[in-house]
Known about the structure:
The protein has helices at residues 10-24, 56-72, 93-105, 123-127, 130-136, 142-147, 156-164, 168-175, 177-191, 203-216; strands at residues 2-7, 29-34, 80-87, 113-118. By secondary structure, it is of the alpha/beta class. A four-stranded parallel β-sheet has the order 2-1-3-4, with helices on both faces. The longest helix has 17 residues, at 56-72.
Amino acid sequence: MHFEILVEGISDKKALQVLVPKIIGDQNTFNIYSYRGIGRIPKNMTDPIVAKNKLLLNNLPRRLRAYGRTFSSYPNNYLTTVIIICDLDNKCLKKFRTELFSVLNSCNPKPRTRFCIAIEEGEAWLLGDISAIKKAYPKAKNNILNSYVNDSICGTWELLANAVFAGGAAKLIKRGGQATGKEKCQWAEKIAPHMDVDANKSPSFRYFRDTMRALVGMS
C-alpha cells in the first residue's frame, strides 16, 4: 500500500515522518505534503486561483480531482490511498466531516480517501503519550500534563506549551506566530521518536492508526 498524506503544517509533517513507519511498517510507502494552514473549502471548487494560497482545504478539491485521475490510470494491484489530516479546532465534527465528504463526492473518478481529524489540534496526538513527552522534556510540569483530558477542547497547543516551554503559551504568543510554529516543530521532532503508537491514549490518533492499518491489511 502507498499513502499520500496531506497535513496542515510542517510540525504535523515532522511528527508523522517518524510515526507513520511505526504504524504501517517498512514494507509500505508514503509521501507527506504540508500546507501553510487549514484554510476553508472554497465555494467554487473549480476555481484555480485558490491553489495559490497554499492552504489545505482551499486546495483540497483540486488535489483530490488530480489524485482521482492519476489513481484511475494505475494497475489494479497498485493500491494507493489519500489520507487527509485536519485539526478540528472549534468546528462541529459531524458537519466538518460532511463538508469533507462533499468535496470527495464531487470528484469523478474518486480516489480512495480517508479523513482523520485531530481533536482538538495535532498536539493532542503528542499529549496522548505523556511518557514520550516526559522522555523528551524531563522537566515538563506534571500537574499540567496530568490535568489533560484526551481529545478535549481546551486549547491543546497552549496546554502543551505551558507544560514544556519556559514562560508557557503566553510567552510564545507574545513572540508571534513564527516563533510558535518553530516551537511546535521542535515538540514534534523531540517527542515523536519516543512515542508508542500502540499505547497512545488519544482517540483521534487511534482512529488514524487503525485506519491506516486496516488499509494496509487490504494489500
